[in-house]
Amino acid sequence: GEGFRSPLDFDWIPGNVDRIIICEKRGLIHLAVNGVLQSTPFLDIQNKVMSDSGRGLMGCLIDVDFKKQPYLYVSYTDDRISDNPNDPQTGIVSRFKVNAQVTQASGEVILMGKSTTGKKGCGGNESIGKKDIICNDANMHNHGGLTMNPDGELFVGLGDGADPPVFDDLPIRAVDLDWTVGKVLCIQRDGKACKGNPFQKGNDFKSNRAKVWNSGLRNPFRVNWDPVLKVPLIAHVGFASFESIFAGTKGRNFGWPCLEGPKTNLKANNYKECKDIARGKTKAGGGSLWDYDHDFGTSVTGVARLSSNKWPNSLKNMIAVCDYTKSWIKLIKTNKNGIQGKPEDLMSDVLGPVQLKQGPDGHLYYISIIAQKIFRIRYQLDKSRPTVSRMSPPQKASNVETTVRVGITFSKKIKTNSINAKNIKLQLSNNKKLVNAKLVWEAGTNTVYMEPRSTLKKDTSYVVVVSGIVDSQGRKMKGSFTSPFKTGGGFSLYISDLKFQKATNGIKAPVLRDKQQFQSAQNVVPPLSLRGETFRKGLGTVAESVVTVKLPAGCKRFQSYVGVDDFRRNFESGEMIFTVEGKGKKGTERLYRNNKVVTKTDPALYIDVDVGGFQTVSFISSKTKKGGTASAVGTWGDAQFRCGSYDKAEPKVVKITPVSNVGVNQEIIVLFSEPMEIQSTIESTTLHLPVESGGYGYDIGVQIEFNNKQTFMTIKPSAPLSFNTEYVLSIGKGATDLSGNSLKSRTERRIKTRKEGTAGQKIGLTELNAKNVRPQRNFSKGAKDTLELKPDVSVDYLVPGNCGSFSFDMSAKQGGKNMRMTVAADGKVLCGSGPVNAGQTKRVKCDVLGQNDVTLTLDGNGGLAVLSNAEFNCAQGSRLPRCEFGKLPNKFVVGQKICYSAKCYDFKGNQIPKKKMLFLTQLVHCQKDCHFHEEQTVENATGGCYKAPDHGDYYYLEFQVFADDGKNTGMTARQVRPETAAVTVTTMPPGAVVGVDSLSGPSPLRSIVLVKARFTINASKNAGNRRFRFWDDNKKQPADRELLFNKPGPRKYNAVYK
């Protein structure tokens, strides 16, 4: 799954692995069905959640007894005290009820945290601590994990709510049983303490003390139930020394802040409580299954037992553990004394995992906040031999740089001892002379990199030879693999390999080469990373930062990816600006500066500028007033000069096929003029629905693959497309070739899918209800699914869905003469049998495509006509209930009242009563993408009315009606589009940043607005060294102006700068 923003947790609707909820830090919860993200949020509490820094919605959970208890549980920091993210806050643990359709949750019931406190926070005030308050004084270590045991008892992890390096009166609350913070608590579905809790006494089920299960915890970030030990497993984020996996046995005090992992925390020895622990007066510590120090990992964020039968005996009942900053998942074997042996590698480079769970299908799942996806890990014994699945540069590539780093990706995990100079060689093609190269293994991608120890020769042919590779099961590669390439005259020089003439940083620590800053008490130096992609080379900076280097001889261009690094201290979005300046004989010139600020949620920017002729080049990282130092951690990924006679040719899209009559599951092939860099091309490729001329709809999920030569790109929709629908395939200029040259021009193609099939599901005529039989005495059902009709008779039937044809056999009996059966619709005859006499049988087939009703009429002289094998051939799904909407307007304007109605039928033609109908009105809000707002629900009715609001930005309306026939639920939808006006904002000179409502960018900018909607256009007050002066059409209007159009049509506004 994918398409989220800072996802932190997930869970399944019990018993159904196909339905999964995904919880975002900001308070938005999504539902994905069969891997497809539903358009309507499952729950949206963004207006309640404080999500800055280490705060937000940190845990979500579906009740284990969902059929009887259809609840969703959440744990989050709220904003009841203040909307200032730096102020003390409080928290809430609550439940919501999931609707019968299992599409949304609503109706919050607070289980813990009903009370709040003043703006000064809780501090160490014991009288406050005893209240039903979750105290989040600091913006770190607030809420943690949620889990539930099979008995329906809810375990809640809460951090100490204290500032990490300060040992004041906040951290010690973790060992005080009257406070909820720094604990794992056990509560029932109504928020009362679990029966049998270690400190629950008598009839006291409401006090904080009664709810405590474990104490002495700094940050129980994840809590998952262990079916083997039958206790919660706790992934405990430590301070400066250790991360821990605890078995949450009843009543155990883990000792924080007095203890960290297996050792005493000397910084906390001033507390009386810690002295009591040291003297043995208070029992604390123990219960750890694994403590690992910060050379091994620095932020444990997930723990799960592999208890299902999907795992082999060698792995079953091991515990999976993930670490956020080191991006690994490891397996440990434990007994009552803790870890046995050494941890085993399961996966590496998993890009910031923040939750691990074993799914209902028995496989292991994890969610990555960096990749913003959910991944499944399943065990499958692969008996195939290892092969080379990808080469970089591709086979037979030409004009390859002499500084190339050769990448060899294998089809499966291989034994590292088979990676050696004998099995992997780079040699000259003409004489097979070996090139001395360093071999580097990247386990996460199954890739071996060859790094030549000296520059390759210009205009020379080389060949990579691979043989003797053995996989992890001992299977040996068959034969050998060769991949030739030829160098050109170009080469690259990484900025991090050059001497700095100047290097200043926003903190005391220096600018890092090929590593990233990570500010914490933990001495961590993670790799450079932008939106899940790690960079081997580059610069790690903290704004304000300036790095200046001398431009090497022969270097002409600078290329780099830039952005706010993934591995910042906090999750909140930083705001940064990146600038490149060149200094030469004529002074300093700005070569690049991003037009708008970059945040952590924005994709990486790609810089490609000409630096030829300058003496020095400077790389500047700046922050805005909004972004503090902790959020101004920037990465210059793969920052390099391109030098010599390197490849300058811009790649082109040669062909896209098919573009018409495309199957809903069909792959689309794109052919490029030369090998493409895979990552940038994938990121620049989208398939989306057009909303209106000039605007685009929501992206369609796709899977993209390349051939070995990287010249063919295959695009396959993640879910079937809609029939008879036009899509737009876009490949932006961010797509680059192997030399970093951008696509020559943005490419767009209209992709039209074929019309829906009208066959595949047969529905017999005798299954349907006859309507309006005229006369009734001449019509009856016969034996074995037949119908018997006497002349003259007419019978009406409702066509059961989207049907292509209707066919039947007609026989004449009892002396019938010249009997004729006709099938008509809307007064037009569709087909007929012609004359049929006694003893004859005729086969009749009609085209009924697009018809809602048909009328069968029999004429003749006496006798009896028997219809057999009478059936409609219809599209799949035609047995579902369907509805017919009444008249809806073709277009609407803001403020218009739109009334809707529908009649619903089961496939037999029986009308479904209004008590079995539900109407849903959705506002589909679009600008750069689309999302849905559920505006109105009407039940037990045959229709309703809705007033089109002034929502801002482009939107359209979708009216849905759901009908339930007792066996199946069908949905029919109709969309109504708005009257619109196209607004174009230009500037003189061009290029200044302008906006139309929420859409902004350099001029000229075009947007679509709704008729009778109020909206704003704006021009930036400054554009370089120029200032905004006036609008051409009205010189008295300010830079920000409000407009309203009463009629559709194009409009143009020009801002003048001087």
UniProtKB/TrEMBL annotation:
The source's domain of life comes to: Eukaryota
**Keyword tags:** Signal
UniProt keyword annotation of Cell inner membrane present: no
Q: What SMART domains would the database entry show?
A: NPCBM (SM00776)
Question: Signal peptide span per the entry?
Answer: none
Gene3D superfamilies in the record:
2.60.40.1220, NPCBM/NEW2 domain (2.60.120.1060), TolB, C-terminal domain (2.120.10.30)
Ranges for domain Glycosyl hydrolase family 98 putative carbohydrate-binding module come to 492-643
Q: Reply yes or no: does the keyword Signal apply.
A: yes
Q: Which Pfam families match?
A: Big_5, GSDH, NPCBM
What parts of the sequence cross the membrane?
Answer: none
User: What is the name of the protein in this document?
Assistant: Glycosyl hydrolase family 98 putative carbohydrate-binding module domain-containing protein
Q: Which organism is it from?
A: Rhodosorus marinus
